[in-house]
Specification:
The protein folds into 2 domains: 5-80 and 192-260, Rossmann fold, CATH 3.40.50; 84-188, Hypothetical Protein, Haloacid Dehalogenase-like Hydrolase, Chain: A, domain 2. Helix content is 29%, strand content 26%. The chain is built from 9 helices and 15 strands. The strands form 2 sheets. The protein has an 8-stranded mixed sheet. Strand 13 (212-216), helix 7 and strand 14 (230-234) form a beta-alpha-beta unit. This is Cof-like hydrolase. GO terms for molecular function: magnesium ion binding; phosphatase activity. It holds the Pfam family Hydrolase_3.
């Protein structure tokens, strides 16, 4: 079998409900790499967020921030950011809707005032090995920040309302993290998607779509499925994604990645 390029979503696909990567997933990915396959993370997480996974897992690269930031080993293939004008427009919109949100740059998570009140110790969020720098938004210094994604937390406003207001000018997708609220989501720069990110990787590697596999769980993985040849959904995935899948594997806590690689 020709070596494949495998794109794996993180939250709810690679990680379980507690945000942990099962040991069986490490074993499956390592074994696939030894057989010559290339493994990429394909995630809505921005660079400071997915870096936590890279502390523990060696991969060929990352399609991050929903396709806004594409990394191959230590090389940046593509990066898309909001303009300062867009950031001011979007933060003003979200503030008026009284939503909690944060801005994700390459190095820092910037949180709005309402979210800041709910976080204890905003100086840093500590993982096992690395700190994510978390700071309040300073609107006077936004010009120096490269923002690739905005996450908003929403339990009261229908997601379709936000979609109607924002989708014409930006890429917006539902959050796949249930704790954020069912109407929560992510906003990325226009003309950004996991599919576009995958196509960028394939062009750089001079490979074709026929060489690809994608594994996901959420509605934001629909574009990923559009960009790959073989589509695998975990059993806990959104119904929409399962209908699109060629195969269904187990949930992360039931060794879904390991079984998908068998």
């Amino acid at each position: 079998m020709k070596n494949k390029i495998i794109f794996i979503d993180i939250d709810g696909t690679l990680t379980d409900d507690f945000g942990q990567i099962p040991e069986s997933a490490f074993q499956a990915i390592s074994a696939a790499q030894k057989r010559g396959h290339e493994v990429f993370l394909c995630t809505g997480r921005a660079r400071p967020e997915y870096q936590l996974v890279l502390d523990d897992l060696i991969v060929s690269g990352v399609v991050g921030a929903g396709g806004s930031f594409i990394q191959l080993a230590d090389k940046i293939l593509s990066e898309r950011y909001f303009s300062v004008e867009d950031i001011l427009h979007l933060t003003n919109y979200l503030e008026k809707k009284q939503l909690h949100f944060y801005l994700a740059s390459n190095q820092t998570i910037l949180i709005n005032e309402e979210l800041r009140k709910k976080i204890d110790g905003i100086e840093a969020l500590v993982s096992k090995k690395r700190k994510i720098c978390i700071k309040p938004i300073d609107y006077t210094s936004l010009i120096t920040e490269k923002i690739s994604k905005i996450n908003f937390f929403n339990k009261k406003i229908p997601f379709d309302t936000l979609l109607t207001d924002l989708a014409q000018d930006y890429t917006i997708s539902p959050s796949t993290i249930q704790a954020f609220g069912k109407n929560s989501g992510e906003i990325m720069p226009p003309r950004t998607s996991k599919q576009i990110g995958i196509e960028c990787v394939l062009q750089h590697l001079n490979r074709s779509k026929e060489d690809t596999i994608g594994i996901g769980n959420g509605s934001n993985d629909v574009p990923m499925f559009a960009g790959v040849h073989t589509k695998i959904a975990v059993s806990s995935a959104d119904e929409e994604l399962i209908k699109l899948a060629d195969h269904v594997t187990a949930a992360p806590q039931d060794h879904g990645i390991y079984k998908a690689f068998e």
